[in-house]
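Final report, Chapter 2: Outcomes

The project's central promise was a pipeline that accepts a single protein chain and returns its three-dimensional structure in a standardized token representation, suitable for archiving and comparison. That pipeline is now operational. To close this chapter, we reproduce one record exactly as it appears in the project archive, with the input sequence first and the structure output second.
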Amino acid sequence: MDVKKYLERVQAGQQYRSMELRAVANGSENPEYRVTGYSTMFNQPFTLYREKIGGQEWEVREQVDSKAFAKTDMSDVIFNLNHEGRVFARLSNNTLKLTVEEKGLRVDAYLGGTEEGRKIHQEIEGGYLTKMSYRFVVEDDEVKEFSEGEKRVILRTITNIRKLYDVSVVSIPADDHTSISARSFSDGLIEKLQAERLEAEKKEEEKRQAVFAAEARQRELDLLKNC
């Protein structure tokens, strides 16, 4: 995938997450050319990103709420290679099916419609292509911050996904896409939380100083009265 285009998408708010997808075994006489899997499992937190910043260990976790896809634009999601190029299956012609189940969003794709799609299936089945990812934009989320021992943990719950663009088999590790996308989100979030904490500490210190000054002034007034 073109790196410049990928970074432009990330900067525009599009995110990537790796997913598990497997080829449905082909019969020798009637090959099905199908792949299936789950793009996400609901309410199952996973570690998205971790780093030590300024001596403080941070860990960002993410989970997807079971209602996150209730309003998602999935009008014409496609299945392609490396999030670009030829389309091998798509929602609009029923070669791609997305089903919101109790445990997650299930993906079923039929790749037998084109010669290239059949080749992709064979490469997935043969283990030559093993990584998948999906591309989306978040509309709403909830963020909580808490401590686990010396570690600060940020738990992000995605409550509303605005749009799902594509499901893609990738020839480069899907984790590379996920890592860059996750870092783009996480760095900004950590910086924001640190800035908010510093601002809160600053206000608290200003409040303490104001109380201290008021008490000092009151002592001065008391001394003047007693003179």
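Archive annotation: The first helix runs from residue 3 to 11.
This record, like all others produced under the grant, will remain available to the consortium after the project formally closes.
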